[in-house]
């Protein structure tokens, strides 16, 4: 994306007209030519444009500054989501934490609001409405990790509402985005894990095993172990249902149980213990 295109995108993200951007610093015609890359602005004009667009001149030249800022914000948000600290998330979406007016931050705000509506208030209708609005904001310029988070959350919502076909479509879109951007990290793991859960609910254990194993392989490759226990459970449960389990499964479950107990994931620990009893028999 060239400078002119970045100026235009940032202006649209902030809901400014060319006339509003130009007021007091340039003519509308100049702004139009800049956005079409027909005019290279001088340093003073570019400085004034950057101030009005609430970004730095470097961002207009290189486009990476706001992505970096959003990355840091997403780290904080994801930590709170993992802890299910919804009370701490409310000031984030109601305050100025997500306030630069960019498409990414508007999508992030809708994404977080949908999660709070779904899990804290159990307002499923509002949650679906918000996640659909966030989904509709996705484009190729959006932060990739945010795109994947929105796709996965949307899939979980529809899966919980027993609308598996819609959930799978959302995950397929997420996996396509991940493949296109060469993403192999915990975002990819989450997408594959959700997909394995959907197929487990449909008793399609061959597909469940396929996607759980793919997620497990990425887990080992990327050293991202946050869903290790859950993935081992899905893998061994599928192998048991398919009649192909062997002696290595118990050892895997023992490691998974140790990690889930260590992380105080009581629900998955219970499931693993029950599965170990079935294998003992």
Radius of gyration: 23 Å
Note the overall shape: elongated
Give the structural class: mainly alpha
Helical proportion, percent range = over 70%
Distance between the termini: 61 Å
Low-confidence stretches: none
Task: Please work out how many helical segments DSSP would assign.
Answer: 16
Write a compact overview of the structure shown.
This protein is mostly helical. The protein contains 16 helices and no strands.
Would you write up a description of this structure?
With 281 residues, this protein is an all-alpha fold. The protein folds into three domains: 3-62, lambda repressor-like DNA-binding domains (434 Repressor (Amino-terminal Domain)), CATH 1.10.260; 66-179, Serine Threonine Protein Phosphatase 5, Tetratricopeptide repeat, CATH 1.25.40.10; 184-281, Tetratricopeptide repeat domain (Serine Threonine Protein Phosphatase 5, Tetratricopeptide repeat, Alpha Horseshoe), CATH 1.25.40. Helices cover 75% and strands 0% of the residues. The protein has 16 helices and no strands. It has helices spanning 3-13, 18-22, 28-35, 43-52, 57-62, 65-82, 86-94, 103-120, 124-136, 144-160, 164-180, 186-201, 205-222, 228-242, 248-262, 266-280. Helix 10 packs parallel to helix 12 (186-201) and helix 15 runs antiparallel to helix 16 (266-280). It is elongated, with a radius of gyration of 23 Å. Residues 7-60 form the HTH cro/C1-type domain. This is Putative DNA binding protein. It comes from Mammaliicoccus stepanovicii. GO terms for molecular function: DNA binding. Pfam families: HTH_3.
């Amino acid at each position: 994306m060239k400078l002119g295109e970045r100026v235009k995108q940032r202006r649209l993200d902030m809901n400014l007209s060319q006339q509003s951007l130009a007021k007091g610093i340039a003519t509308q015609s100049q702004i139009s030519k800049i956005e079409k890359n027909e005019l290279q602005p001088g340093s003073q004009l570019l400085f004034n444009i950057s101030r009005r667009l609430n970004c730095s001149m470097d961002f207009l030249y290189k486009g990476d500054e706001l992505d970096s800022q959003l990355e840091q914000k997403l780290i904080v948000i994801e930590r709170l989501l993992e802890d299910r600290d919804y009370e701490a998330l409310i000031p984030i979406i109601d305050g100025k934490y997500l306030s630069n007016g960019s498409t990414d931050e508007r999508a992030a705000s809708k994404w977080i609001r949908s999660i709070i509506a779904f899990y804290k208030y159990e307002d499923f209708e509002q949650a679906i409405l918000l996640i659909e609005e966030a989904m509709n904001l996705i484009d190729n310029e959006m932060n990739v990790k945010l795109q994947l988070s929105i796709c996965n959350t949307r899939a979980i919502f529809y899966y919980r509402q027993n609308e598996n076909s819609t959930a799978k479509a959302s995950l397929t879109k997420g996996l396509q985005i991940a493949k296109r951007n060469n993403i192999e990290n915990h975002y990819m793991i989450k997408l594959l894990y959700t997909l394995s859960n959907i197929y487990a609910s449909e008793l399609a254990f061959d597909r469940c095993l396929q996607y759980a194993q793919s997620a497990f392989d990425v887990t080992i490759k990327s050293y991202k172990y946050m869903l290790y226990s859950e993935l081992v459970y899905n893998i061994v449960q599928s192998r048991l249902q398919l009649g192909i389990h062997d002696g290595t499964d118990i050892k895997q479950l023992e490691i998974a149980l140790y990690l889930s107990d260590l992380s105080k994931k009581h629900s998955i620990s219970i499931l693993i213990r029950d599965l170990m009893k079935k294998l003992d028999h």
